[in-house]
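Task: complex structure prediction.
Instruction: return structure tokens for all chains below.
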Amino acid sequence: MTATRRAALGFAGLALTAGFARAERGGDPVAPLIEAITNRPAAAAIGRAWLRGLAEPPDLATLRQHVAAALQFGDPRDPGLGTSTQSAQFTAQVRRDFDEGHVEMVDGWMLSRIETQLCAIVCLITEGEA
Amino acid sequence: MFIDARTVEQSAVVETGVCIIGAGAAGITLAMSLRSAGFPVAVLESGDFELDEATQDLDAGDLAGVTNYPPDISRLRFFGGTTNHWAGWCRPLDEADFLPRAGVPLSGWPIRRADLRPYYDQAQKVCELGPPDYDADAWIQAVGGPGPKFDPRRLKAALFQVSPPTRFGETYREALRQADSVTVYLNANAAELQANGTASSVEQVNVRCLNGRAFAVRARCVVLAAGGLENARVLLLSNKVQPAGLGNTNDVVGRYFMDHPWFTYAGIARFERPDPKLPLFFGQTTVRETSVFTTLAAGDEAPDSADSGGGFRIVLDKAFRIVEGVDSLKTLGSALSHFSLPADLWHHLGSVLRDRDAVADSLYKNTFGRRSSPFTPKIPTSGPVVGASMDINIEQAPNPESRVTLTRKRDALGQNRLLLDWRLGETERNTYRRACAFVAQEFGRLGIGRVATTPLQAKAWPPNMVGSRHHMGTTRMSDNPKTGVVDAQCQVHGISNLFIAGSSVFPTSGYANPTLTIVALALRLGDELRRRMA
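Output:
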């Protein structure tokens, strides 16, 4: 409970909130999830802490693939696939991760694999933009 | 009636039916249950009606091993015993606690919970509790449940009832005073159990007072009810016939000492949404005229394997606002109270400085017990619950190296003082890890929130871990004399008229507070003694 503890204080503002904002869907199925994160610095801090703890941290493309695959997104340009569906998919996957023990420990916090990967994506995007 | 033992004639021999050594929860319960049994009962209480420094000093001893409370702090040596400062938390042991478990070495009682069931029911009244109902769901429904649907492979809600708390020495004093068949000797220290030549029975209890007075009590049955540490000490001190101590031919007396390791502020939870439905989890609530609360505990279907560990409970304390500096302050305070520093000292100091206003506010309220302080921003004491801190309290597995022995130091009666060497091992680490994992998984799975817990270091136990002042196991119950001091009837193996009451007979401890089980076992022993005395 060190570096990301303060970041985790803003965790409730992360993608776990039910209200996923409708976002641009330029072919990236993960983009709406990222857009919905209200506290990106917190998410980036969590992602950074997790990536630092890995011997071989994955790159951005790999993480995007993992998240998309885990959520089994359809074509993001499909107008029938609403954000509420994505929200439910994400939430269900988070719950499933915890149930099945697919979790990551980040500075003492137990997080689901999918949300940790999402945080790592935010981190890599943020650092890439910097 | 009550008699000041210091006034008993020197070298007198008191004849009685049953002699009970100790007037705490076990001794008083037993005396009450036997007061109309038709035979005389003598109770030997070391102290008087009030705490006396010289008498309390007889409890002093040394500590070794893991940090624990000094023996003269954790116990009270006057009429009523340690119930004079207990908190009153009550819960029977679970059915599983009586069974052999792969995760807890040497587990399994020679009796089952069903054997104790009628006595647990009676114990509710003795401890001034509500109905003998510990179905958490039913209580939660009564306050507008339902609560969370935990996966029984991980967690459950464990309900506790809270005694007023009953001060046994006050509540039952008048009844014992009026009981013609019961004589309570105050200021009477049981210095030695004098056995016959073959150590097959106790001939008399040799009593000594701090004023030098000495006399003996001869009884058909003798019951040691002096507490989890002192029961073992009295046996070890009674070494004239059996040099290793009475009832100790197999070197079991004093071993297997257990407490409930308590990890204060072991974790924090941040809720996904304010005010999650966790009824009865945040402090005591009066429901149907009974004070109750619930904790998280290991689920009834939790896996049991060699490395699964034992039982645990997690006590939640709600947070209305998340302030990391206050979290850090609590961590620092816990460490400093044990004369140590947390591993991530600089992180915590930094947090305290960053949140100094809130920390000052918290300190002010804690110091002066006021809800408001001149500092801002204030930490709300009401409003939406956004998180919780967690204390983790775990079962300790029986460990023969965790033990009570005698030292060369002497007390005022010339008796060897005790050394408490508390040992914990890998089973407790497994239990702690499992508690952390289960609560984090279930809070995540149910969408309650996320949990951070303090990982254990490789060897040392963290400074925020101490005992719960629940002394158990030192004269444990077992059908096998090689692994236990008393049998299923609480009779000391091989000694026909010596019995033991109290938590020292617990073979395993479960996660519940011990007093209700102590009282239930004392009531059961009362029935057994009535049969033996008939």
